[in-house]
Amino acid sequence: MAPSQEKANHTLTPPMGPGVQSPSLEEPTAAVPPPPPKPSQQGPATVTPTGAATGAPPEAVAQQGMYLTTSQGARLRSTDHALKAGPRGPVLLQDHHLREKISHFDHERIPERVVHARGSGAHGVFVANGRASKICRAAFLGKDVETPVFVRFSTVAGFRGSSDTVRDTRGFATKFYTSEGNYDLVGNNIPVFFIQEGIKFPDIVHAVKPEPDKEIPQAQSAHDTFWDFVSLHTEAQAHVAWSMSDRGIPLSFRMMEGFGIHTFRLMDAAGETCLVKFHWKPRQGVHSQVWEETQMSAGADPDFHRRDLYDAIDAGAYPSWDLGVQVMPDTPEEIFEGIDLLDPTKFIPEEVCPVEVIGTMTLNRRPTNFFAETEQVMFNPGNLVPGIDVTNDPLLQVRLFSYIDTQITRLGGPNFSQLPINRAHCPVNDMFRDGFHQDAVHGGVAPYKPNSLDGGNPAEADDDSSGYIDIPTPVAGNKVRELSATFDDHYSQATLFVRSLSSAERQHLTSAYTFELSKCYEEAIRVRQLQCLANIDADLCAEVARGLGLSAPQPTTPPGDVEPSPAVSQLGKKWPVVGRKIAVVVDSDTPPDAVASVREAIMNAGMLPFVTAPRGGKLGDVVVDRTFLTAASIEFDAALVMVAPVPAPDALPAFDAKSGQDTTGRAVDPRVVKMVAEMFRHCKAIAVTPGATSVLAAAGVHEDAPGMVVAEPVAAVAGLAGLLASHRVWERFPARVTHESS
Asked: Residue 306, annotated ligand binder?
């Protein structure tokens, strides 16, 4: 089956409302049990703190009973009024319910993560295809083995309440609940990192965070302290190039690649080793927003990515990724094709070392409780299973400590692994005792080794009992604070990345650098970064310098000849259209049967229709999903305009600023015109029926422009699906970036 024709193997449904069932108009008064989770929700597996399956349903750990109680289970008659000395008297200290309720409320917040504070999570399953068995002994990589997973996507710089769509690196952390213990693959959507050594992590984070005197800007790198640091600490330049590209503004979590960043060492059943880099390849394709969309969505819907992920899962358009590895020989030098495999600021082009798919992950349930799962989940690159080990990557080595250390404060003590979302799905006998929030009730009297009082329990594992092996590797050298000379190249991979992009992507990259550096007050910082760009690519430097009104410097380290990596570019490929969102524009006079037919055709193609009309309610039996007041171009991948709607009664600035300043004499509702004009400008596919072409004229769009479909409604759906396979219609606006140095 061609990628563009791939469909979901289950029925898609429109996203659901917040409750399991529709509420009554009046406040309910009869006692009823707590609601069950929605079909698209799943809580953590019900295992004990020590890994024993309880067999209880997930809702067994949710609230119980039909009546309001204290935390100790005593039923309460009222929670609306405090206990007072008379109706107008003072509140009494003896009000135990008031004290308990307010005290708990006062302590509901926990410290957010220092980085990756803004996150969204989902449950799913990983199914291995068995190809990794020849290089790794890990049980979860055996053929057809299914492993539960929990994934947390995140931004890096912003606070927990910041916007989803800012320009930033995205975290892509996966917890595999394997039969041999939890394995965490903690990566990003960019394959290289800002720094080579973990000791510099506080520096890069302090630089990108809001400036400490004003606490601005929030969740942005477009300010002096960030560019001051990266222009001086030039090992960051490769990562900066990736984050200034379209990779820094993904369209959706569902459409991001993931990378393990570091090199890991694998061991097979015979004890043979190899070095690998991990990759997540989204089956939905790798797609991004355009810059104007990111700014619009940050204001109109700061939860844009979170909503998109959960709406897709609710609708049954489950996102999936193939997990792949680049396999390299485990040589003493740990260098492959001239690239130091211990340097986290370097990646291996796929043309040099292909990615071999070893399994597929599908996310099919969202959390039942965001705090208990997404906020309390912890990851650690040191959570390993037999057959997978770390290397001497100096950034990875520090992460092994930092990821545990941060949880002790954030999650209130050392027992964070006993939180339901973090519990292993296999027996745990760690001899750890006591501490804050100890949930296990340990038996025995001898939590130490060796012992005889508990019969020697727990025994130490061997090869026959799948004991973890710290893979033996030689270690030698003097104590020094320095790096190998093989880490010294800070520019060639940035050059490789820039010259691997398409013309449209290079234009976006140029605009991003120009925008960000224009936000810096200090000219010295702009000039210094231009020097870095001169060392990366002369054309890129010249274009950015022109935008800044500065002269392009000569390189101090001339860019070398590099072989572009076509795999780096997001463009030029065809992708499935499953889960893509289509605005279906109608008016109150559109025949309901025609709307129903279009909805069915869109859903049969694996896409999601959003009927958009002048007002809410229904058209016949068809529910209106969006109104002209609430619809925004940014939430749709394409539009099908069935009619040219006249201005609705609320198409006035006093009711909706989107209508503009004057609606008198207009033949088409100005909010539809605005949406179509924005979608055209953002290179999105647009279809209109022959009777609705006046909408295009009103938007200043020619019906013969690239990416336009003029056809009857059902036929137009096929045209949109064909265009969406390429994501956007980039040929609508040819790029003007030169490529002389390419």
From this structure: no
